[in-house]
Write a structure and sequence with these properties.
The protein has eight helices and seven strands, in the order E-H-E-H-E-H-E-H-E-H-H-E-H-H-E. It has 250 residues and is α/β, with parallel strands linked by helices. The chain has one domain: NAD(P)-binding Rossmann-like Domain (Rossmann fold, 3-Layer(aba) Sandwich), CATH 3.40.50.720. The chain has a seven-stranded parallel sheet, with helices on both faces. Helix 1 packs across helix 8, helix 3 packs parallel to helix 4 and helix 4 packs parallel to helix 6. The longest helix has 26 residues. Belongs to the short-chain dehydrogenases/reductases (SDR) family. One of its GO terms (cellular component) is membrane.
């Protein structure tokens, strides 16, 4: 059976500002809608402005507090860009109470020896370096909140450690280590660190990796999005420092 997901009670995120990094993707959209329905002011960060605008409208349509859009391309972003983002969150929204990382750069299965250097650097940047640098920029704001949370999204280690998963696989393995270290560094106090390991989902990344797979074989990312929103809420206090594994055991 799946690991127990904390209940997301109505209004669990009311009054909270949540930054979703990679909000335009399949899991990002599902998480944004779940957070908005739970009362959060959702900051939609991504590079596809039109998709973010569509999601903005969806959030308003479900009665969520007015969201915000923060366009940013993680591939070329610098520590200064993240510092400016933190300043904007503090100035315009009074701070931030949670951040979740759903952005991913995956370009298909490729042997390591054939990966172009520029592609390798981009995959490491988006999937690993950007989360760390964003956390560094936001830590002062997160610590000002009475209860705050960081959520990393992992991938199945048995899958991404295998041949041809390239820079994405390497970065996801390292991200698990980043989560573990950061969680231990914040094992107490108002800031909680969590990780989410979703079950296989019907997303663009999944289609690119398993192009021969029937799309209906996997579920929509709704469950994972709701679980991510729950981890950002106080109801997840008992899961501090843990990986919430949504996979069905073999």
């Amino acid at each position: 059976m799946r690991q127990q997901v904390p209940a997301l009670v109505p209004g669990a995120l009311s009054g909270r500002v949540v930054l979703l990094v990679g909000a335009a993707g399949g899991l990002g959209r599902a998480a944004a809608l779940a957070c908005g329905r739970a009362g959060a002011t959702v900051v939609l960060l991504g590079r596809q402005v039109r998709a973010l605008e569509d999601l903005y409208d969806e959030l308003l349509a479900v009665g969520a507090p007015q969201p915000a859009i923060y366009p940013l391309n993680l591939e070329g972003a610098t520590p200064r860009d993240y510092a400016v983002m933190a300043e904007a969150l503090a100035r315009d929204l009074g701070g931030v109470d949670g951040v979740a990382f759903t952005a991913a750069r995956f370009d298909g299965l490729t042997p390591l020896e054939l990966i172009e250097p520029e592609l390798w650097l981009s995959q490491i940047q988006v999937n690993l370096s950007a989360p760390l640098l964003i956390v560094q920029a936001l830590l002062p704001l997160l610590r000002q909140s009475a209860d705050s949370a960081i959520v990393f999204v992992l991938d199945d280690p048995a899958r991404v450690r295998r041949a041809h998963w390239g820079g994405y696989g390497v970065a996801k393995c390292a991200l698990e280590g980043l989560f573990a270290i950061l969680a231990e560094e914040h094992h107490e106090g108002p800031l909680r660190v969590h990780a989410l390991l979703p079950a296989p989902m019907r997303t663009a990344l999944r289609r690119l990796a398993y192009f021969g797979e029937h799309g209906e074989a996997q579920s929509e990312p709704t469950l994972a999005g709701a679980a991510l929103a729950a981890l950002l809420s106080p109801q997840a206090a008992s899961l501090r420092g843990q990986v919430l594994d949504l996979r069905v055991p073999d």
